[in-house]
Design brief:
With 136 residues, the chain is of the alpha+beta class. The protein has 5 helices and 5 strands; from the N terminus they run ααβαββαββα. The protein has one domain (3-135). It has helices at residues 3-12, 36-40, 49-64, 91-104, 128-135, and strands at residues 42-43, 71-78, 81-87, 116-119, 123-126. The strands form 2 sheets. A 3-stranded mixed sheet has the order 1-2-3. It has a two-stranded antiparallel sheet with strand order 4-5. The longest helix is centred in the middle third of the chain and has 16 residues, at 49-64. It is globular.
Length: 136
């Protein structure tokens, strides 16, 4: 994802996209380590920005009405779909994450238009235009 869009997600959802290092609560002598999210950021194309934004908006709303705070640990593309690994979701929030993952396989990762899973060297989700561009 472009640095600008990733920065917007971090600014709009600071509680979800926190980059605080994680320590061992049972052993304060062990130094805290950066999270995967802090190290790698959002590892997918800009076409999924609106999907991730809508997911986070709904996750934060659920938190506002009593659900636990979800914290992203890793956000990436894998096998053509969105993977949103997190700490703390309840069943309702986990369902939201699963729906977003399923929806991502129908949205072009590059532009966000209607797409499909395309097996090539890698499995990707592309619209016809970007599928053609990948094959050239």
């Amino acid at each position: 994802m472009s640095p600008e869009l990733e920065a917007k997600l971090r600014a709009d959802y600071p509680l979800i996209f926190t980059a605080q290092p994680i320590g061992d609560p049972d052993d304060p002598e062990v130094p805290a380590v950066p999270t995967l999210f802090a190290t790698w950021g959002v590892e997918c194309g800009d076409g999924w920005y609106d999907l991730i934004d809508a997911l986070c908006l709904n996750l934060q709303y659920a938190t506002k009405i009593g659900a636990p705070q979800v914290v992203a640990r890793q956000v990436k593309e894998k096998f053509g779909g969105l993977r949103f690994y997190s700490d703390g979701p309840n069943d309702y929030q986990a369902g939201m994450i699963q729906v977003a993952a399923l929806m991502s396989t129908r949205l072009c990762e590059v532009c966000g238009k209607r797409g499909r899973l395309v097996p090539n060297d890698w499995i990707k989700t592309r619209c016809p235009e970007h599928e053609k561009a990948d094959n050239e």
